[in-house]
Amino acid sequence: MADYFAHSTAVIDDNCVIGEGTKIWHFSHVMSNSKLGEKCNLGQNVVISPNVVLGNNVKVQNNVSVYTGVICEDDVFLGPSMVFTNVINPRSFINRKEEFRQTLVRKGASIGANSTIICGVEIGKFALIGAGAVVTKDVPAYALIVGNPGRQVGWVSEYGHRLEFSATGEAVCPESNQKYRLENNQVKRI
User: Fold this and answer.
1) β-strands 179-183, 170-172: how paired?
2) How far apart are alpha carbons 91 and 100 in whole angstroms?
3) What global pTM score does this model have?
4) pLDDT in tens, 66-85
5) Burial letters 96-117, b for 16+ CB under 10 A, else e
6) Which run of H or E residues covers position 30?
Protein backbone atom coordinates (compact mmCIF):
# COMPACT_ATOMS: atom_id res chain seq x y z
CA MET A 1 0.00 0.00 0.00
CA ALA A 2 1.31 3.44 -0.98
CA ASP A 3 2.35 5.96 1.65
CA TYR A 4 0.70 8.69 -0.44
CA PHE A 5 -2.80 9.42 -1.75
CA ALA A 6 -3.65 9.46 -5.46
CA HIS A 7 -7.19 10.12 -6.66
CA SER A 8 -8.59 7.38 -8.91
CA THR A 9 -8.36 9.71 -11.95
CA ALA A 10 -4.67 10.51 -11.39
CA VAL A 11 -2.06 8.89 -13.63
CA ILE A 12 1.33 7.98 -12.18
CA ASP A 13 3.94 6.65 -14.61
CA ASP A 14 6.70 4.16 -13.82
CA ASN A 15 9.88 5.00 -11.94
CA CYS A 16 8.47 7.87 -9.90
CA VAL A 17 9.44 8.51 -6.30
CA ILE A 18 6.57 9.93 -4.25
CA GLY A 19 7.09 10.88 -0.62
CA GLU A 20 4.99 9.88 2.34
CA GLY A 21 1.87 11.97 2.94
CA THR A 22 1.80 13.46 -0.57
CA LYS A 23 -1.65 13.95 -2.16
CA ILE A 24 -2.30 13.85 -5.90
CA TRP A 25 -5.78 15.02 -6.91
CA HIS A 26 -8.20 14.72 -9.84
CA PHE A 27 -6.90 14.35 -13.40
CA SER A 28 -3.25 14.97 -12.49
CA HIS A 29 -0.35 13.22 -14.22
CA VAL A 30 3.04 12.45 -12.68
CA MET A 31 5.40 11.40 -15.47
CA SER A 32 8.31 8.98 -15.35
CA ASN A 33 11.43 9.57 -13.28
CA SER A 34 9.90 12.42 -11.29
CA LYS A 35 10.68 12.83 -7.63
CA LEU A 36 8.10 14.32 -5.23
CA GLY A 37 9.01 14.87 -1.60
CA GLU A 38 6.95 14.23 1.50
CA LYS A 39 3.67 16.04 2.19
CA CYS A 40 3.37 17.61 -1.26
CA ASN A 41 -0.08 18.53 -2.59
CA LEU A 42 -0.83 18.43 -6.31
CA GLY A 43 -4.18 20.01 -7.12
CA GLN A 44 -6.54 19.17 -9.95
CA ASN A 45 -5.20 18.94 -13.51
CA VAL A 46 -1.50 19.19 -12.60
CA VAL A 47 1.21 17.77 -14.86
CA ILE A 48 4.62 16.85 -13.48
CA SER A 49 6.91 16.20 -16.46
CA PRO A 50 9.73 13.64 -16.55
CA ASN A 51 12.70 14.22 -14.23
CA VAL A 52 11.08 17.07 -12.29
CA VAL A 53 12.13 17.34 -8.64
CA LEU A 54 9.82 18.72 -5.94
CA GLY A 55 11.08 19.00 -2.36
CA ASN A 56 9.02 18.40 0.76
CA ASN A 57 5.76 20.27 1.41
CA VAL A 58 5.49 21.73 -2.10
CA LYS A 59 1.98 22.97 -2.94
CA VAL A 60 1.04 22.90 -6.63
CA GLN A 61 -2.36 24.46 -7.24
CA ASN A 62 -4.84 23.56 -10.00
CA ASN A 63 -3.89 23.69 -13.69
CA VAL A 64 -0.10 23.92 -13.31
CA SER A 65 2.37 22.12 -15.58
CA VAL A 66 5.81 21.66 -14.07
CA TYR A 67 8.06 20.97 -17.04
CA THR A 68 11.31 19.03 -17.31
CA GLY A 69 14.15 21.19 -16.02
CA VAL A 70 12.24 22.60 -13.04
CA ILE A 71 13.47 21.96 -9.52
CA CYS A 72 11.47 23.22 -6.53
CA GLU A 73 13.06 23.07 -3.10
CA ASP A 74 11.10 22.52 0.14
CA ASP A 75 8.02 24.61 1.03
CA VAL A 76 7.50 26.12 -2.44
CA PHE A 77 4.01 27.36 -3.42
CA LEU A 78 2.94 27.32 -7.08
CA GLY A 79 -0.30 29.28 -7.52
CA PRO A 80 -3.25 28.34 -9.73
CA SER A 81 -2.55 28.31 -13.47
CA MET A 82 0.99 29.66 -13.15
CA VAL A 83 3.29 28.69 -16.04
CA PHE A 84 6.85 27.44 -16.39
CA THR A 85 8.65 27.28 -19.73
CA ASN A 86 11.64 25.09 -20.54
CA VAL A 87 12.81 26.18 -24.00
CA ILE A 88 13.75 29.79 -24.78
CA ASN A 89 12.76 29.71 -28.49
CA PRO A 90 10.22 26.91 -29.07
CA ARG A 91 9.14 25.83 -32.53
CA SER A 92 6.70 22.98 -33.10
CA PHE A 93 8.74 21.66 -36.06
CA ILE A 94 12.12 21.64 -34.25
CA ASN A 95 12.89 19.18 -31.45
CA ARG A 96 14.76 21.11 -28.75
CA LYS A 97 14.59 18.65 -25.85
CA GLU A 98 18.38 18.84 -25.59
CA GLU A 99 18.05 22.58 -24.97
CA PHE A 100 15.80 22.46 -21.90
CA ARG A 101 17.01 25.05 -19.39
CA GLN A 102 16.98 24.46 -15.66
CA THR A 103 14.73 26.64 -13.53
CA LEU A 104 15.39 26.57 -9.79
CA VAL A 105 12.81 27.69 -7.23
CA ARG A 106 14.48 28.01 -3.83
CA LYS A 107 13.08 27.06 -0.43
CA GLY A 108 9.92 28.84 0.68
CA ALA A 109 9.36 30.86 -2.51
CA SER A 110 5.77 31.53 -3.62
CA ILE A 111 4.68 32.08 -7.21
CA GLY A 112 1.28 33.71 -7.63
CA ALA A 113 -1.66 32.72 -9.81
CA ASN A 114 -1.23 33.14 -13.58
CA SER A 115 2.45 34.08 -13.30
CA THR A 116 4.88 33.04 -16.02
CA ILE A 117 8.43 31.96 -15.21
CA ILE A 118 10.76 32.00 -18.22
CA CYS A 119 13.18 29.07 -18.18
CA GLY A 120 16.72 29.36 -16.93
CA VAL A 121 16.05 31.64 -13.97
CA GLU A 122 16.52 31.14 -10.25
CA ILE A 123 13.84 32.29 -7.83
CA GLY A 124 15.54 33.08 -4.50
CA LYS A 125 14.45 31.65 -1.17
CA PHE A 126 11.25 33.09 0.29
CA ALA A 127 10.77 35.37 -2.75
CA LEU A 128 7.16 36.29 -3.55
CA ILE A 129 6.08 36.53 -7.19
CA GLY A 130 2.80 38.46 -7.46
CA ALA A 131 -0.17 37.16 -9.44
CA GLY A 132 0.24 37.61 -13.18
CA ALA A 133 3.93 38.60 -13.05
CA VAL A 134 6.24 37.57 -15.89
CA VAL A 135 9.68 36.66 -14.53
CA THR A 136 12.47 36.92 -17.12
CA LYS A 137 15.55 37.09 -14.88
CA ASP A 138 16.88 35.81 -11.57
CA VAL A 139 15.02 36.92 -8.43
CA PRO A 140 16.90 37.64 -5.18
CA ALA A 141 15.99 35.94 -1.90
CA TYR A 142 13.06 37.67 -0.11
CA ALA A 143 12.28 39.86 -3.17
CA LEU A 144 8.73 40.96 -4.02
CA ILE A 145 8.20 40.86 -7.81
CA VAL A 146 5.16 42.21 -9.71
CA GLY A 147 4.21 43.17 -13.25
CA ASN A 148 5.10 42.38 -16.84
CA PRO A 149 8.00 42.26 -17.17
CA GLY A 150 8.47 41.41 -13.51
CA ARG A 151 10.17 44.10 -11.46
CA GLN A 152 11.15 44.19 -7.83
CA VAL A 153 9.01 46.53 -5.73
CA GLY A 154 10.20 45.55 -2.26
CA TRP A 155 11.12 42.78 0.13
CA VAL A 156 9.07 40.25 2.10
CA SER A 157 9.58 38.22 5.24
CA GLU A 158 9.49 34.42 5.40
CA TYR A 159 5.82 34.83 6.41
CA GLY A 160 5.12 36.83 3.22
CA HIS A 161 4.72 40.30 4.78
CA ARG A 162 6.23 43.36 3.16
CA LEU A 163 9.31 44.53 5.05
CA GLU A 164 9.90 48.19 5.84
CA PHE A 165 13.58 48.79 6.52
CA SER A 166 14.82 51.49 8.92
CA ALA A 167 17.66 53.87 8.15
CA THR A 168 20.00 51.32 9.76
CA GLY A 169 18.80 48.61 7.34
CA GLU A 170 16.74 46.56 9.78
CA ALA A 171 13.14 45.35 9.59
CA VAL A 172 10.82 43.16 11.66
CA CYS A 173 8.11 40.85 10.32
CA PRO A 174 4.78 41.97 11.86
CA GLU A 175 3.54 38.39 12.23
CA SER A 176 6.59 36.38 13.32
CA ASN A 177 8.75 39.14 14.85
CA GLN A 178 11.67 37.72 12.85
CA LYS A 179 14.35 40.32 12.21
CA TYR A 180 15.94 41.05 8.83
CA ARG A 181 18.86 43.11 7.57
CA LEU A 182 19.18 44.80 4.16
CA GLU A 183 22.79 45.22 3.13
CA ASN A 184 24.28 45.58 -0.37
CA ASN A 185 20.81 45.02 -1.88
CA GLN A 186 20.49 41.62 -0.18
CA VAL A 187 18.16 40.64 2.65
CA LYS A 188 19.18 38.20 5.34
CA ARG A 189 17.32 36.99 8.37
CA ILE A 190 19.19 37.84 11.58
Assistant:
1) antiparallel
2) 13
3) 0.97
4) 999 999 999 999 999 999 99
5) eeeebeebbbbbbbbbbbbbbb
6) strand 29-30
